[in-house]
Amino acid sequence: MSDPATPRKSLYIETVGCQMNVLDSELIVAQLRRDGYELTDDLHQADAILYNTCSVRQHAEDKIYSALGRIKHLKQRRPDVQIGVIGCMAQKDQKQILHRAPHVDLVVGPGQIGRVSELLQTAQLEQKPQMAVSLARNAGKTLDVLDTFPTYDPDRAPEPTPQGATPHQAFVRIQMGCDKFCTYCIVPSVRGPEQGRPPELIVEEARRLLAQGVKEITLLGQTVNSYTYRHGDGRTTRLSDLLALLHDLDGLLRLKFVTNFPLDMTDDLLQAVRDLRRVSRYLHVPAQSGCDEVLRRMKRLYTVAQYDEMMGRIRETVPDCAVSSDFIVGFCGETEASFQKSMELVERSRFKNSFIFKYSPRAGTKADDRFADDVPEEVKKRRNLELLALQNAISVEDNRPLIGQTVEVLVEGPSKAAGKRSEDDPSGIGVTQMTGRTSCDRIVVFTGNLRQAGHLLPVVVDQVSAVTLIGRVVTSESESVPVAEAALS
Questions:
Q1: Cα separation of 164 and 20, whole Å?
Q2: CA separation (Å) from 222 to 103, 215, 284, 463?
Q3: What is the pTM of this model?
């Protein structure tokens, strides 16, 4: 812990990428707060500037290198400011970062984030850059590689909720790494082998967070539904078992998990989603393509028929469940016929929403080694827009029946579009536009107040768009109309 008499230092941290990166940043912030740092949103006043990076797409890396270039002159003016590159790009590029940005003091891979505090101190004492990265996947035996990817999910209490999150929501990591090796994906290389955390540690972490006022917990894993933990006595804990362990913890209102892999969507997991009322009726299951030939080149390990079969089991077992997906357009060798098969998969699956990306070659992946990036950029853009337009039309069509219905919303806080609090608000509680989500993960905005954050509220839906429901809080029983979301999923 820092000495109360020691002047506090300021920390600027910028996070790019997935929820796993957001969680890593939270853990780093908590770690450095114990060393006397406090957060600032002004990097020009910061004593330490950290970039937590992503390598999934080139744009994410370009953004970080551009930022490093912009702060070169800041380092020249203030040599004592420490600059760090953390996360997936640090693991992937390693010494290349120091070559391109020699003013960087710290390069730390995702498997080494527990050492950020120590390395900042060492860099300052030795006046030279520090690097901490994990072994490459092919650099030794699996257990040796795993040793360089230690789990780092320490006691976050009693730290305040870090930047970017609401006080009522928290991520909890249940799994690190990935063993799927999709040909387009760099994650197995930068996040290491798949490993599940012990369930007792996960439950204890959840208890601490709930005691701090958290109401919604999202379990994180690269392929979260493949989570298994093998105990020394021969028992195995699956994700469905973990959901049951967490479900009845005091203070928990909602439990989510992302991201799922199609082949690991087991019946016991679907039954847990159906039977455990606090588990969100929402599954994010990336398809990536609707064409078997493209899926084979991607090494996704399943066929379109298997994905369709999984969707059928979801609809049968959890009829009120919403499903979202990911798609990559313009992958190596994707023809117009291949792309049309993705359009057909979206049409028949009727996803709540889809995240659609243009293929971006990543150095170090099998796709970059084996296949030509042969789909022109203008074709990728067109296919992206066509698939997005189809998905948006489906989302609007499936949301329309909600108009006039009542949905239960877990309130998160003010919406991004919320203006300033009303100056003539006599209550002082901040009347503004609030936002939250239904159990099926539909975003809802309504006029409310800050005191509602962290509570479950009934909201009548008045308008809908592809991604948002617009409504008003129910003020009398006569306004409340039960909603059957099963028909909308």
A1: 13
A2: 32, 23, 12, 35
A3: 0.89
